[in-house]
Amino acid sequence: MKRSFKDLSPVEVLALAISLEEEDSRILQEFARLLRPNYPKAAAELDAMRGEEDGHRHRLVDLFRRRHGEEIPLIQREDIKGFVRRDPISAIQPWDIARIRSYVALMELETGRYYSKAALTTTDAELRQLLGDLAEEERHHEARSATLAPEGQPHDEHAAEARVARQLFVMQVIQPGLVGLMDGSVSTLAPLFAAAFATRAAIAGGHLTEAQATWSTFLVGLAAAVGAAISMGFAEALSDDGSLTGRGRPYLRGAVCALMTFAGAIGHALPYLIPNFWLATSVATAVVGIELALIAWIRNHYMDSPFLPTIIQVLGGGILVFLAGILIGSA
Description:
The chain is mainly α. It has two domains: 5-153, Up-down Bundle (Ferritin), CATH 1.20.1260; 161-330, no CATH class. Helices cover 76% and strands 0% of the residues. It is built from ten helices and no strands. The chain has helices at 10-35, 40-68, 97-121, 125-148, 155-187, 189-204, 210-239, 250-267, 277-302, 307-330. The protein is elongated and about 100 Å long. The model has no long low-confidence stretch (mean pLDDT 80).
């Protein structure tokens, strides 16, 4: 059961202050570690703040040791009413620098308020002086944390971090998604249209109705989509663990790649739910054109590829696979 702040003894007030400084220091250290590879300036700011928090902790522990001995009671912020609930660090992952900055700003504000309140309630002169000093230092931290908050960040630094964030988004989400979309949209054209034109011959021979033929073609397209999604998902996830390339979590990349592969493949298979061969084929062909144009747009928008050469390359590859499927199915 949580306790009220006013019920804490001077020993517990000091023990809680030590616990807060230890927790804040560990959080700052972890955030600095996460940010260092891509945001070295922000990581250096957090390292400096962690050093100051360690200094606060040493002063608090020295006072406790002189007054109360070596055994510090275990009391944490979760045991006391009135503290804001903090999300665990794992909840911020995949981490985002804006969320980290906001987290740190709130953390410093809360610690400073604790020292101010504790200094007003204690009657121990030495403890009151130390808590008052720390409250003043935390107020400086509050002012400093305003620059850590996204809205107080210098424009050039914000722009630099935005560029890095975009690069990471491209590497960790767009690239595996684009690979999956290209594979699903292009590689499954051949089996789908081969099945479509093979069943058309069966329609002409009276062996299948149009509804049966288009349904069979849809099943082939669905099977190709599922198979390609599983294959591409595993291939992307197992390609590297992201520790050296910075491409992020392998299972996340694999899931993105698999979903986009399935989306690209099922898009031109769905029209074959229409029980009319030529109408279904016409709609499927139009969907293929949209898919290829979308691939070209993504490459142009995120990869800075020139749009005209990109659309020619993508359409050229798609048309070759499309014709291969028709030729094989008509053989």
